[in-house]
Structures are given as structure tokens and as C-alpha cells.
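Record 1 of the preview.
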Amino acid sequence: MPQPQPTLQGPPPNQQGPFQGGYPPQGPPQNGPYGAQPPQSTASPGPGKGGPRQNRGPGGPATPQMPQQLPYNNDPRQSPQVVHPLAGIARGPQYPVGNVGNALAELDLERLPPQFKKVEADWFAIFNPDVPKILDVDLVHTLIHESVVCCVRFSHDGKFVATGCNRSAQIYDVVSGNKVCVLQDDSVDSVGDLYIRSVCFSPDGRYLVTGAEDKLIRVWDIATRTIRNTFSGHEQDIYSLDFARDGRTIASGSGDRTVRLWDIEASQNILTLSIEDGVTTVAISPDTKYVAAGSLDKSVRVWDAATGYLVERLEGPDGHKDSVYSVAFAPNGKDLVSGSLDKTIKMWELVAPRGGHPNTGPKGGRCLRTFEGHKDFVLSVALTPDGAWVLSGSKDRGVQFWDPRTGNTQLMLQGHKNSVISVAPSPSGGSFATGSGDMRARIWSYKNI
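->
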């Protein structure tokens, strides 16, 4: 019996999603060991030329690199982020752990006492010996793709997760792990690669927005698998998207040095914000008043989304020392986190200036703390919906959970064989997703203990 279509008034009822037939769910995901992937570089957004990749200029640091199927040790513990004794030398006994700070990558997994580690078939976690263990993680599903997974994003009700890969966006049921929808524009020339660099759901769950290397933003009606809107105007690759909670405003960031705001009801560009270098990441504040962007120029900017007035530029001695790759607002709307190629995450407080006039925005932002512990580029950052944890994904293949109050890392998760390009927590809490250059997305659970 056909199900009623979801409406703009809210998300679909609990017993149904926006997928009413027409696409057969795939079989159950595979959670066992998967084929080995060699290390690949994960580069940053560089100049985009559009069209097939062979006709484009050289990729920048975030250009997806297709892994080659070359074998290496399948032991999940053989990670470049964890130091091991030389092969053939007898391992010593387990040892007491001293003060390691956030440098969990320096710990020897084999000799680490069992209370500080969790080792499974093809992933492991190391828990910080210097802080109380109050969090646990587990693998829920492995979602196998045919290309690099550039991005992951949950629907607002937490029931679905979308991934962006080469030429398509895919949507999965979070509970079952089944693929329920593939969104691909068949009108696009099939020659060459066309990576979907960013995806985001509308608040009501009806639409999925995709941003791609062909400079176009597509708004998909999920139920009908058709394109509702196509927005053009960017002159280079689109690297990041966010959907405002008002249900009609989309922010996009591009290598063309602009942030643009779009109205899906009016089908038009309503604001263009220009900066001095390529835009790598955008985020809209929970109250929809502000839009933030990170850039190749090492800074984070925050604008008034209604007027386009620049209310903050976060940089300087306490700022990042390399390109900013990811930004995310905290649930309180007053704090912001950023991740950078300088291997750090920073938390910023957006505060009103002393003696400032009303409605002048959050001038006077300051860096509250810097999170250090990753061994390579930080490519993605996010906060859990309760604001209790900062998540980060890195080129070092690791995901870390950080306490935003102290700056301490709670754990380091190694669950991929290539860069963790994207990390996203579920808005409903208790789970998060990761996307990687190893052609896998994974859904994980986390819980307090």
C-alpha cells in the first residue's frame, strides 16, 4: 500500500521515511575485515576547472585520491599512528602508563594494559590513561562504496545517513545499514570523475542538497529522486554546504573565494560573500543568524546572514597556522570549533564587544583552547548534539573525542585504512558516521559508561 508523501510541515512519521519504494534496499552491510588500502594523500581544495578531471588543473589538498587495491598487513593494529616494536623482537610485558597527555598515537597498542584499549576485528580504540574512562564506542555498520567517500551527514531525525562519493549521493537506513536511495544526475557527461564534496538534509527530511566539482548545487526531492532546484553561480568546485534550520536557506562555500546563500523557495542566490582565498567549509548557526566559513588563508570568518556584515575574523597569534578545513557551531550557538591542516582543533568563543551597540553581532571572539594530538591534517570537526564532545577526523586515519571543557582527548579511534575525510554526529545522539579514502563509510555508536 503506498505511503503518504512527507510534507514540509515536519519530518516523516516514525513508521516511515522519505523512501516510498522504487529502489530496492541493498543487502546487509559487511562488518568484517575488508580489503587493505594503501595510504593515499588527502589534499586541500585547490583550483577547480570543472568538467572531467583529466581536463582540469592540478588538484589541491582535498582532491579525492582513489586508493589502489594493493595489499598490506591486514592486522588493524598496524596503523601509522601507533608505534610498534620492530618485527622479530620479543615484546615486553604490559607496562604502567605514564603521563602521555593527548599523544595517544605514541602508545604501543600491544603493550598497553587492557583497560586502556578496545581491539576488534578491523578497528581499535585507545582510551586516554590520564583521564577517567567515561565513554565507549562500537562499530554498528560498514557501508561499502566504489570510490572515496568525501562526506557523511545525518538526517535531522537521525534515521538516515547520506554519503557523497564519485558521481552520486547515497542514503542509508541507520538501523539496518541498508542502502535505500541513490541520487545521480544522469544528464551529466559520464566521462571522468565528478565527486560529490558535500551533502546535507533539509530539516524536514524531504530534500538532500549536494555540492559537486561541476560547480553546481542540486536540491534533490528524496521521495521522487528528482532534482527540485539547481543553483549555478560558483566558478569553481563546491566544497561545503549547510542547510539552515529555517528550512529554506542553504549556504555554500567554493574554491572561487565566495560563500553564497541560496533560497530554495525563491530559487535564487540571496547573498554573496567574497574573501581573499578559497573557501573550504561553511556552517550556519543554530539560530540561523550567522554563517561561518574557513579558508585556505588560515582564518575563520563569521557574517551576519541577513546583512552580509562581517562580524568576526578569527585569526592572529592564537589562530591557526595553516588552512582551515572544517568549522562547526556548538549547539549553544555561541561557540565555534575549527580544524586545520596545522593538525589542531580550536574552540572559539563568540562574544559581544564591550560598549558595543545592540545587534552588532559577536565581535571580540577569542580562542578558548587548542586541541593537540593528531599527527596529521585535521580534515573534519563536529560537536555532539549535547555539546559534550568535540569529534575530529584526520589524515592520520584517526577519529578523536575531545572534552571541550578541558581540551583533553577521551579516546582515539582507528577504524579506517585511509584518511578520515568526514565525521558527523547524529542529531539524535548516541551515534556518529565517518567517511574515508578507503572507500568505506562507517556508522558507530558511543555511550557514557
